[in-house]
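Quick one, T. Sequence first:
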Amino acid sequence: MKNMFTAKIERFKCVNGWHYVTVPEELVMPLKLQNYMNQFGYIAITAKVRISSWDTSIMPMGDKTDFIALPAKIRKKEKLALGDEIEVLFELRVRG
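Structure tokens:
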């Protein structure tokens, strides 16, 4: 199952805070209801931005929203910057 959304790149307000995109609730809620989360609330996915893909997780932010972190190597390769609006594609990584 593939999911796509557009979001602005944000950054946690702390020293060396992660860059991330917020995942729309309407994409995350069905996955939570189907119990795809681990005990920490993470949902294992493969994310893709432009031509780059990486294994990661959808993670809870703590305020009932969820996010996907954008690693520096992906931001550098795709020339992404804070505030850019990007299209993100993701699919579940099902444990076998």
